[in-house]
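Quick start: read one record
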Amino acid sequence: MTSAVVGIGAPPGTAGRGGPLTGLGPLLRLCLRRERIPLLCWVIGVGLVVGTSFPAIAALYPEAAARADLAIGVGSNPATVAITGPVFDSSVGGLSAWRVGVIGSTVLALMAVFTVVRRTRGDEEAGRTELLAATAVGRSAQLASAVLVAAAAAVAVGLLGLLGALSTGSAVTGSLLLVAALAGCSWVFAAVAALAAQLAGSARGATVLAGTAVGVAFLLRATADGSDLPWLRWLSPIGWVEQLQPFAANRWPVLLLYPAAAVLLLLPAAWYQRRRDLGAGLLPTRPGRAVGRLSGIGGLGVRLQWGSAAGWAVGLAVAGAVLGGVAGGADQLLQGSPQIQELFRRLGGDGGISAVVLAAIGGFVGIAVAGQAVSIALRLRAEEEAARTELLLSCPVSRTRLFAVQLLWVVVAPAVSLTLCGLSAGVALGARGGSGAGLGDGLSALLVQLPAVWVMGGIALLLVGLAPRAIGVAWAAVGVALLLGQLGDLLRLPRWVIDLSPFGHLPQLPSAAMDWTPVLVLTGIAAVLVIAGLLGFRRRDVG
């Protein structure tokens, strides 16, 4: 008896009674079930921050004159505009769109990338796709279910944001445009992730490709906003959020770019997915050296992590030089505007202008490096799903040693990245002549983030040890920390909400005095998380 439907991995030219989307309904339910915890964290975390930004802006700047001064002050400095985007309207809705437009669309893009890659190339790498291919499932059903679930999560975030906007009496048209842009940007990068999953031969490679696309889109938008090249916004889905100009010009036709781009990316993804061999990718996999020696489990860790760690270190060193220059040029922006001074003090403390900006930048970079720590920690789970961990454990290698090697990289690699970023930021800041800040301030602003970074890495290791099926929660935690860190104090969110992020407890160096208590407490929490993860990893079944 033959299967009625050709499976995902069937060779080209075979036919069955079912279509390419046969079984989409059951796969949607399966995808929702497997993603329910991480997506719930993403939706609640991002949705609440977007939704509460409107009443918070209304409470923080109730007077139209104060909002107008804020908009003028932001637009007077290209460096600030490059980071946050321009303000197109000084209403409550317009300022809210400025605060959450770029950040929210970037975070939702990352949410879509992680979700789609995990449920496509990740499942394929773990062998689950091959099992599905033996059932009555169409060849494009799994890809479609992953994209649809990611798109639905973005819509849910938009609905929460819309409720917050309408609660303040903001214009319905602008509110709809803003939340539609946030969801639309996520749709585009869900399609980017779907295509990357066909190009790369591994989940890690697909995540790197799609994540790089998000980074390039952000940099294109930042370049357009910080220079005389505004046309570059049209090349970035994140820039399209600004081109819509919600609450200002309300350019509805720009909204059509999102579904058009998503469809154009999904068509080749579906075409190639139906024709390639199961487990293969369009981009060739680079073979290792024909002759080599790993020098034990430590050498294997170096082989697996070195390339990624070096890339992070170099990238953050370059980013530190750029951000240090931004902090050094902040004096001109802030000295003439009490509203902007208040804004940056809420972000970074009460010290000098350059120090305040550097503290805010340090928090932003710290959350980015937390993503590096989580990525390193979850490599342990990726090796397990690929059945390589079981092979290692059949050798004279204990689970404790295997876990300890991964822990060493979680601890050391982020420390190196933050150190290089702090050094380059301090050098650039001194070269720009920032007020009272220099090399030591650059290092302190970045290295103080380390305990919170270790906590995020500890959360990932805890999930690997105790709840490996819920590892997506680690990425959701990074996304929530990003939003709370950038918007929490500014939007006057409740203290208990801000305290959910470990970064909210750190001293805002160099603009505030050093406080060792939260640093030591967070380090202790990270240690407890790691020990719990190790105990779970030693006792649970591998696979």
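Residues 1-17, 347-351 have pLDDT under 50 and may be disordered.
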